[in-house]
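Aim 2, interim progress. The first record below pairs a target sequence with its structure tokens.
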Amino acid sequence: MDKKITTCATLLFALFIILLSLTPVNSHTVESWDKVFHIILYAFFTALSYPLANNVKQFYWLCFAVFIFGGTIEFAQSFIPGRVMSAYDLLANTIGIMLIIMITRKRWLA
């Protein structure tokens, strides 16, 4: 896939996460699938950014950027009505990132 298209898709997905995460809600009820959703969302975000890296070092920096993005979203949620900042959400985001690192690790070691 062309890097311009991948970059646009990654940025659009980041915007999707921002809109999804920072929309005010009436009440904060944690569903049983919430953490699984975080894992899937951030695994997909990391996988989407994977083709942007030319080497393993760049990929790890992109993973770090996705982690910081997730942390920033969690912090920002503390200012949104009906939302709360959650270390468990950040942990679930990190698990999603780590899954993609483990899956793609073989490519970088080859």
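The second target in this work package is listed in the same format:
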Amino acid sequence: MKVAIGLLFAALGIGVVQAETIETRAQDYIDNQNVESGARTGYGDCIVTREPGNLPTSAKYKVNVKDEGNYQLKMTYAAGVPRPVSITVNGQFISGNAASGATGGFFPGNQITSNEGVVRLKAGENLVLISRDSDFPHIHSFTVEGPQP
């Protein structure tokens, strides 16, 4: 009987956590400091540092997920030189070395997707902050995939 009920719930999607993949374009920030569209400067669909130099640079995002859990975080970016960024999720520091490698250039053809680890997300709205005390890599997007088993 328990097996039949479990199969029925699974068939109806009741109590079953569905995996989801959410890609957020870097240009879809809700707030920023010293960031602008790369399209304005010939770098394509990405965000870049507005005024290069040793100025704080950041972008904040809302990410909504259906289910609470651990999600794989990936970033797609290009960087001619290493420009690691920090990531904070819902106020919790996740990494100070994300998107850290040089990719061979700053243009779309130089973009790579890097695995930045697993982050804990709550059901509903989550705030993601990407920041650096200097110039950003050219960030195209980031993706969360999960929840992970």
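Confidence is low (pLDDT under 50) at residues 2-9. This observation will shape the mutagenesis plan for the next reporting period.
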